[in-house]
Amino acid sequence: MSYETALFDDEEPAGGNLKEKVAEAWRDFARHLVDGLRDLRPGTTLDLTLDPTASGTGDAIYSVQVTGEEDGMLSATAVGNADLPAAYRLDRTVIAEIVALGWSPPGVVPGSGESFGLRVPKGEVTQLSRLVTRTLRDIYGTPHPAFLTYLAHDANGHVAPLPSLGVARSLVTIADADGDGVVDAARTAAGQGGLKELAAETDDLPLHDKVTTVVARLMKTSPEELPIDPDGDIGIRSGSAMVFVRVRDNPPLVDVFSPILTEVEPTERLYVKLSDLTNRMPIGRLYCTNDTVWASVPVFGRDFQPTHLMLAVQVMTGLADELDDRLHGEFGGKRFFGESDKPKPVISSGGERTGMYL
Fold first, then answer.
1. Which Pfam families does the entry mention (predicted)?
2. I want to staple 33 with a disulfide (CB 3.0 to 4.6 A). Which of 119, 129, 319, 334 is the partner?
3. Closest CA to 355 of 138, 116, 346
4. What is the DSSP string of 33-100?
């Protein structure tokens, strides 16, 4: 019997195929973006930004803006090297890729300034949605749309209504943009006696509704607005970690899990290591499936307590931050949002200057 079989002989792994999970999240984002762009009124601008607090890019703001125009056109810009710190500018290869996608170089499209630009009719919103999505994902290195923030506003900065963009996070509803947002929400609820009220509020609800109510409270949104993927998992972005919550009916169980490492070779040595680390954990387990290492913390569905789920989410966030570097150093692979996922910086040399965009 292999180590993998020993871990999973009684149940299907919670994580499943991470690549397909992420790909479906991007497809869902692109579908929602089509509706958002179609509803964009003249004079209204939609800002889409890779959250720098998650990416660790500091002052480097990777963003795309789309503005509605009076003539039924949409104008769009994507940040270029003139607006990026020297250490985070795009190299020649990335510049070629962004132009190949369909962007015009800075200064070519009127009004684009020092950003890449384009103008398209509103009838081409589907194509524009795909281009914007690929720019944010492939050029700027966003690992999952949950790491994007967005805001629609008019020329005076007043917030404009916009449909939800999948799991991307609206700046209108974000109270905490950093990695401590989920933790602070739980602490605030506990400190104000909110947990007792939450327990009373969810006491008579089915397990699935209990969970969505608690997670919505953590994410400062409503249960109806929670990002739920085709697997039925709720996605929570906390700092650089991506955490999923799944409700199981038989037996009643809530599984809180997170991808620690992906594109890793599943060797016997890796399974032994994960088994050893699992034995040291007071609760939860580590496992590998579909070339991805996952961490999982269960919460009992019977006699469900909101505080147990909040604690599991906090523990999972800490595990992701602690273990991804350690396992990456020993077994290789790719962290969910590691250095290799960030946009490639310009490689400067004494003899060649890349210029502001080429």
1. TY-Chap1 (PF22551), TY-Chap3 (PF22552)
2. 129
3. 346
4. HHHHHHTPPBT-EEEEEE-HHHHT-TT---EEEEEE-TTSEEEEEE--GGGS-GGG-B-HHHHHHHHH
d(CA 241, CA 137): 17
Structure tokens at 123: 């009838």
CA 239, distance to chain mean position in Å, is: 9
Beta-strand pair 241-248/63-68 = unpaired
Q: In what helix (H) or strand (E) does residue 117 lie, and over which residues does it extend?
A: strand 116-121
> Taking a C-beta distance cutoff of 8 angstroms, is the pair 337, 55 a contact?
yes
Which amino acid does the sequence have at 148?
Answer: L
DSSP string, 157-174: --B------TTSEETTT-
216, 10 in Cβ contact below 8 A? Answer: no
| Cβ neighbour number for residue 230 with a 10 Å cutoff | 11
C-alpha span between 145 and 294 (Å, rounded): 20
**DSSP 8-state class, residue 146:** G
> Which candidate, 20, 53, 19, places its Cα nearest to that of 241?
53
Residue whose token pair is 């890729």: 97
**Are the C-beta atoms of 234 and 227 separated by less than 8 Å?**
yes
Mode of pairing for the β-strands spanning 334-335 and 63-68: unpaired
Pairwise CA distance, residues 220 & 175, whole Å: 8
Token pair in block for residue 142:
């966003």
CB 168 within 8 A of CB 48: yes
Which pLDDT score is estimated for 347? 33
